[in-house]
Amino acid sequence: MEITLKGDREFEEIPSLKTKALRINLNENIYGTFAEIGAGQETVRHFFRAGGASGTIAKAMSAYDKDFSDDIYGVEEDGRYVTEARLRKMLSHEIDLIEKRITRDKHPNKMFFSFANTVATIDFAKQFKGHGWVGIKYQLDSDQDYNEIVLHVRFKETDARLQQETLGILGLNLIYGAFYKYNVPKKLLRYLYDHLNKDQLEIDTVNFSGPAFKDVDNRLMSLQLVKNGMTDAVMFSPDGTNVLPARELYKKNILTLRGSFRPVTKVNMDMFERSYRLFLEENRVTENNTKVLFEITLSNLRAEGEIDEQDFMDRADLLCSLGQTVLISNFQEYYKLVEYFSQYTKNRMGLAMGVNNLIDIFDEKYYRHLSGGILEAFGKLFFKDLKVYLYPMLDAETGELLTSENLKVHPRMKELYKFFKYNGKVADITDYDPEFLTIFSREILEKISEGKRGWEKMMPEGIADLIKDYRMFGYTRRPIVLRKERIRKL
Description:
The protein is α/β, with parallel strands linked by helices. Helix content is 35%, strand content 21%. The strands form 4 sheets. Strands 10-9-13-12-11-14-15-18 form an 8-stranded mixed sheet, sandwiched between helices. The chain has a 6-stranded mixed sheet with strand order 4-3-5-6-7-8, sandwiched between helices. Helix 1 packs across helix 5 (160-180). The longest helix is centred in the middle third of the chain and has 21 residues, at 160-180.
């Protein structure tokens, strides 16, 4: 046994790898198949070595040859093999086979499972560190429907053999957690790192489905990945499905709007719509090759103290109802966000923000941890193909309209600001709606919590009704409507 001192697992004994595999093997009702492509049969190896594997393993295989793989699982439309679609085909195909070949008459109590992975480890040139999809489709009772847990992982180690071993440990942890830790999915996620550390592996996408997880919102599971330091950013689509950032951002132009969205207001949507129009006027930018993201940082979610999951879900539901893709990140500084995007695209990037946000970017205190200070950060930020779309604000004391032309940065930063301003890195949004400049989320929240009226007109169409129906952000005047389904796109 190993003892961990991390987080809420303090002093908890972690079962050894052999103990985990043996517990699975000695459960007479757990029975299934292993299909591993691209990094050896590293997961099933643990079960063979533990002993008693004949009671668990119906089949173990690796279809390394592409033609063999295509003949077994079918050809993917994009011709790729390390994809979520390929993994899900593998899981379904192997479950179908075990259902056909192992009759319920002889084995009425068997809980069938299929474990699969499709992986590309680091290449010989060590330019691509490797990634893969890992999943399990399984029963928790012989007469129940199947559950699924699907992960996307990125390897951080620079040796193929080490990556293979890491993958094997992750696979064992996933199978063990699926059968013995499924009732608390948040803990199941943390247990995936048993006998591993975050310098070895990043998990950037996870989706749970099936009867055991009918009450699980996968967006909350995404939040856990960032909160636990398993990845720096996660993304979910307007329908609430967790999606792989690399797939969504690959070779795309990216426009990002950062905010608290607590709640989303007319000024947020006006900023988005006006900046989007300007972005589409840039060379080589079209609607088809552009991704728009509404980003919420982890520090923003913690602004009120500990992360309130219901509050997070309220914000996410409203953004999704407006048809927006949401990014949750651990990037407090903008240059880190831009560096993250640069992993996936070399195309144009745009940041839509208010005047205060731009002033903060030129505050040296955010870059003291960098050896090159603010100049290093700006080299990473503005020397990419990046432009800031600046939404004006009214000075609370003077009533003056602040734009890129008259905003005030620290005297030491004036020349640096001018350099980027007059090199076309900052563009003012001029066709804004003046009525929206007096809308502030904090004032709306106060009105909602105090039961006052008048805040509804500050929200995009339909948002006020959703806040009332589902009693978001402390609203209490209307009887609550139960969320039998997630809020659909308006």
